[in-house]
Write a structure and sequence with these properties.
Blueprint lengths: L13 E5 L4 E6 L4 E6 L6 E7 L2 E5 L2 H8 L9 E3 L5 E8 L13 H7 L10 H11 L14 E3 L22 E7 L3 E7 L15 E6 L1
Pfam families: DUF1989
Protein name: Urea carboxylase
InterPro entries: DUF1989, UAAP2
């Protein structure tokens, strides 16, 4: 559901531009609002969420999908943890829907989906692994990398129950806003994928904004 935000950019307490292929790993405090902004359109922001006070509790695709009765996320969606606690709620969305099923690119999927010589190209899983290695204050490692949300990504379900990766439905300046219901670690990989036509083979930056 399309809902525009009432927040003003000039009032944001934090603003970070994340280049394609880079990661973002910060804590959003309970009550704060996070905006993920698709700066140039059709860019995928592969995102994981963790309880900042106990990272063993993290976003659960299964519980979120079951409780919402929908595989797509949009305004009004409550993002649940694997303990069925509400982590965040989408309070504004100008894109319309976001993917929960497509997963993240990895060296293995690069090989399967594209070609053997693509294996060593950058992938979101590599960005997450670098993030947890460079931010040891969170006490996380590769075992904490789980299923993710693909903000702005268009992954329709076929009549046979399969998945297809289609051209994006986002555009320059589209965004999604989430209000934190607990202190949350946000781990986002701004997808570096060069082999997918959804972004015209041109990964672009996203901006992360936080309001207190």
């Amino acid at each position: 559901m399309i809902v525009e935000s009432q927040l003003k950019v000039e009032n944001a307490s934090q603003r970070d531009v994340v280049p394609a292929g880079d990661y973002y790993m910060k804590v959003v405090k309970k009550g704060q609002t996070l905006r993920i902004l698709d700066m140039e359109g059709n860019q995928a922001a592969d995102t994981l969420f963790y309880n900042a006070n106990d990272p063993a509790e993290r976003y659960s695709a299964v519980d979120t999908i079951r409780e919402q009765g929908n595989v797509y996320l949009t305004t009004g969606t409550k993002i649940l943890s694997d303990q069925c606690n509400v982590m965040l709620e989408i309070v504004a969305d100008t894109c319309g829907r976001h993917d929960t099923l497509g997963g993240a690119c990895a060296t293995e999927s690069n090989t399967v989906r594209y070609a053997i010589e693509k294996k060593c190209m950058h992938a979101c899983r590599d960005s997450w692994l670098l993030a947890v290695a460079e931010n040891d204050q969170f006490g996380m490692d590769k075992r904490d990398i789980t299923h993710n949300i693909n903000f702005f990504m268009n992954v329709p379900i076929t009549e046979e129950g399969g998945l297809t990766f289609e051209d994006g439905i986002s555009a320059p300046g589209k965004y999604v806003e989430l209000k934190a219901h607990m202190d949350v670690i946000v781990l986002m990989s701004n997808c570096p994928q060069l082999n997918n036509p959804c972004n015209a083979y041109n990964p672009t930056p996203v901006e992360m904004l936080i309001w207190d």
